[in-house]
Structure formats: C-alpha cells, structure tokens
Amino acid sequence: MQDISKHPIFQALQKIIHDAADVIMDIYQRADLGIEQKMDDSPVTAADLAAHKVILAGLQALTPDIPVLSEEAVVSFEERSQWSMLWIVDPLDGTKEFIKRNGEFSINIALVENGAPILGVVYLPTTSEGYFGVTDSWKDLPIGAFKWQGDEFESIKLREPRDPIVVMTSRSHGPALPSDLKAYLKSAYQQVRELPKGSSIKGCRIAEGIADLHLRRGPTSEWDTAAQQAIIEAAGGMLVTPTGKPFRYNQRETLLNGHFFVSGPELAPSVMDWYKKKD
Q: Which terminus of the chain is less hemmed in, N or C, by CB atoms within 10 Å?
C-alpha cells in the first residue's frame, strides 16, 4: 500500500492546515481575540477570518479548478448548485470553545463530489493531532483513515463496541446523552460513560477507536460535518440521519443539517430503534 504520508496531495493539504493552525494559535495567545457577532448571532473571531484566508489561498493554488465553500464565504445556491465538486471548509470549528480558551477547536477541510464527502482533513491546533480520511480514490490517494501527530503517522479504524460504551457529548451545544437512550444502551452494555468535547473532535475520537457513539440533536452546518464524515466513513463508521441515511452536501439551498448520530454499524440499529420509539 502506498505511504499516504508521502503523497503530494496529502502533503499539500497538511501544509495548508498547519499554516492555518499557526495563524489561529498566534491569535489564541492574544488578549483580544477580535470577537464579533454574525447576522445569525453566532460569534466569529479574528482567527476564523485569518484561517479562512490562508486555507482559501492554499486550496485555490492546489486545485484552481475546484471552488471553495467556506463558513466565512458563503456562496448562493444558484451559483454553487452548478458545482459537482467543491471544497467545504470550516476554518475554525468550535469558535465558542476557542473563545473559552479550552483548546477544543479544530480546522475542517472536506472535498465533496456529487454530494458525497470523498476526502476529509481535521486538525486540532492545540494538540497537533491531525486526521485524514479518503472514501473514494481521487488523484491516486489510497482509501482509508489516518492520524498524524508530529512525525508519527498511523492508520486508524473504529473499534468494536465493548464495556464501557463511550459516548461523546457536546461541550457547548445541546443536552447530554438522553437518560432513556442511556438506559436503552445499558440493556446491552453494563456501563455507559459520557465524554464531553467540542467541535469535530468528537467524530475523530470515534474514528480512531477511542469512543463509540455521538448523538447530535442541535443545529449544525455542512462545514461542521463534511470533513469528519469522510474520516468516519473511511474508518468504517457512519455519520447518518436518525433513519440511517448518510448526509449529502451542497444539494439544497439551506446549509443547515438535521439531527444525526455517529457510530459503527454494530451500534447503529440500537440508536435508530431508539429514535423510532421516540417518534
């Protein structure tokens, strides 16, 4: 198998995301984070905007024929509906965590073709952990999920569920794991442990076999999920709607996602059954 860490596309994306992380961490050390409010009342910082500029310039140089949809540069559906392939970018996923200075934020870059995420990169600037997933070969990139930290590079995959079941919960959005779902899981597993984290870290922890499940019932946008979905799927997992359908991107005027959960195929039937009973 080809060493993906030596592939020029991976190396180019790694440099782009490392450069973006450098500008984010520079601003992270400042007293003034340059916080403003968007039209939807969500926060944006100087780091979001600076990282966006770095990533946009890097992707345009790497693939000038592939357009970019970023949280910090939303394009009308009339224009982007013509795009069969595009990059979807969140320059700083977990802005609220960034503002809290708890370190739980990430950079997300996804390549989407005909609605499906075929490549995803997620990087955690405060820990220097990077995740890379390829679900469909593009420019001879091997299919699979990988993690790097410094010079260390390894393949990753989901684990088989076992006691205790580890459930990733959101640090800033929505309630913890519902008590009735926790009880439902305990009918098959003796222990259920909740682990709160921010941003796409939750999905990446599942992809690398540290956790088993994440349930999201609050609003997200396409740039929040596209990159982690590619990584999760490449690692053998699922990011799906309550009925088990994988998300598809750039297919609608709205960029908002519905409810979803992340798991492996073993846990998915139990979660979908719980959703049905809730309805």
A: C
User: Binding site membership: which residues?
Assistant: 71, 90, 92-95, 224
What's the distance, Cα to Cα, between the start and end of the chain in Å?
A: 46
Architecture of domain 4-155: 2-Layer Sandwich (3.30)
Give 116-138 pLDDT, tens digit per residue: 999 999 999 999 999 999 999 89
List the binding residues for Mg(2+). 71, 90, 92-93, 224
pLDDT for the residue numbered 1: 47
Eight-class DSSP state of 199:
T
Residue of 262, 187, 274 lying closest to 231 (CA atoms)? 262
Sequence spans of domains, the chain:
4-155, 165-278
Q: Indicate the pairing of strand 213-216 with strand 165-170.
A: parallel
Binding residue positions for substrate: 71, 92-95, 224
Omega before residue 164 within 30° of 0, cis: yes
CATH topology of domain 165-278: D-Maltodextrin-Binding Protein; domain 2 (3.40.190)
Q: Per the confidence metrics, is the pTM higher than 0.90?
A: yes
Q: Is a pLDDT exceeding 80 seen at residue 40?
A: no
